[in-house]
Amino acid sequence: MFYSYSLESSLKHTRPSRINVVADLERGTTEIEQSRLSWSLIVLSTILALLLSQWPLPVWASWIRPEFAVMLVVFFILDSPFRLGMVYAGIVGLSLDVLEGSVLGQQALALVVVAYLTFLFNTRMRMISLLEQALAVGGMVLVFLCIDYWVNGITGGGYFSIAFILPALSSAAVWPFAKLAMLRFR
Radius of gyration of the chain from Cα atoms? Predict the structure, then answer.
């Protein structure tokens, strides 16, 4: 009997009090809602990432262009994994396919795989330092590039240079600055 009493008393202290829940409802926000992103930020940053992915660059700089769309999908899934996910990644990937004129679904497939991996390793990636996150994002971009070039090779295109991994390195270098900028505007 003493054991059940102590169990009930410990459960009583772990539950949120009714006063706190009522105060949150009156304010209209909870801690979970405060961490979420606004839809205007999502739409504007998606448009900006799509524009940056198509911005004309010199030939030498086009090989080292960071994959802004992949970094954006990874950021949004890390920040709010249950609000944005693989559907968002598929929409951004289809938008990239239309903008670049590639096979429809090529980059959408690659972005959905990256979104799944990010969602799978979400808690691990949130606990590591920013530099370790940059290496993980570089790995995610490398997965994106490998799937993208694999589908391109199947459909008749070909790449004979190992230089296709350069955007993964530049994305890893840009990730800390991009993440801090997104956190500031969140």
Answer: 21
Instruction: Note the pTM of the prediction, 2 decimals.
Output: 0.77
User: Which tokens belong to 151?
Assistant: 């589908």
Higher-confidence position of 37 and 163: 163
H helical segments located in the chain: 2-14, 18-27, 31-34, 39-54, 59-62, 68-79, 86-100, 106-120, 122-127, 130-154, 166-185
Higher pLDDT, 148 or 36: 148
Flag whether pLDDT at 161 surpasses 60: yes
Q: Which residue has the higher pLDDT, 41 or 74?
A: 74
> CA 95 to CA 8: how far, in whole Å?
54
All structural domains of the chain with their residue ranges: 37-185
Is residue 26 scored above 90 in pLDDT?
no
Q: CA-CA distance, 155 to 148, in Å (whole number)?
A: 11
Q: What is the CATH number assigned to the segment(s) 37-185?
A: 1.10.1760
Q: 58-71 as b/e, with b when 16 or more CB fall inside 10 Å?
A: eeeeeeebbbbbbb
